[in-house]
User: Fold this.
Amino acid sequence: MPRGLVDRHGAELTATRAMLDKIRAVYELYGFEALETPAIEYTDALGKFLPDQDRPNEGVFSFQDDDEQWLSLRYDLTAPLARHVAEHFEQLPKPYRSYRSGYVFRNEKPGPGRFRQFMQFDADTVGAPSVSADAEICMMVADTLEAVGICRGDYVVKVNNRKVLDGVLEAIGLGGEANAGRRLTVLRAIDKLDKVGLEGVRDLLGKGRMDPSGDFTKGAGLDGADIDKVIAFVSAGAGLGGLDKLELVVGESEIGRAGLDELRLICKLVAAAGYDDGRILVDPSVVRGLEYYTGPVYEAELTLDVKDADGRPVRFGSVASGGRYDGLV
Assistant:
């Protein structure tokens, strides 16, 4: 069998089916309707949805049909949704709330917990300009985790806003299209915080970092003062107190201040619904490594205490994630 693939059978399939049914029930309770799209799309339609802007078509399994059209197995469920909305925009209700589940395929190096074929279960709202839609998604994530058996207190949904980070990048001179590549390098550096720690991120923002295996990752090339501003953003702390610190970091940046206002509104909506009890909180360390996000971004992380066979703590990291991506359709 090729690397990164696995056979599944028996109890595992039964458990998976039961979990998917519980997720589906929560999504439908929130008013999302099912959508099914093909596993194959035109390769050109996937480019801007891939994680690395400088490698637009790597990471996908592609082939040519008899018309010499390049086709690819879907990399995620976002590109098919965008294509579907673009093709049926006039007929779809607004806002359009849908969910999709199915296998996606990554032509990437497999590793522990990283497969070339795996299942995603997405929910998206199209045509909702207010961040109330983002607050709702975060609450739905919390309800979904509890529906599949994760106890309250054993998870947290962390929320940030890419506009705030854009404000920080603008403040250090990385605004505009000419700096898109360097901005992406900064995003990737921050996105590795949970893996390499603050000092590792600092190295990646500067000249680069050598990992324990000897592999060197080239950094963003920022100077010391600019690195300090990015680190101040990442380490501002969770909650409303962190927002006050971020206000100092973004300075007079209009987009940065707009992002802070949106986060405050999300906090207000979350509190009004009773989810501000530790289930959902603002955390500047959440950036999401994809360039196309334009507003709020969020990640659900398991916090339960689990140890491996040798008694060492096991960190699960993100088990659900997403964000606002205006302008993709």
Summary: The first helix runs from residue 10 to 29.
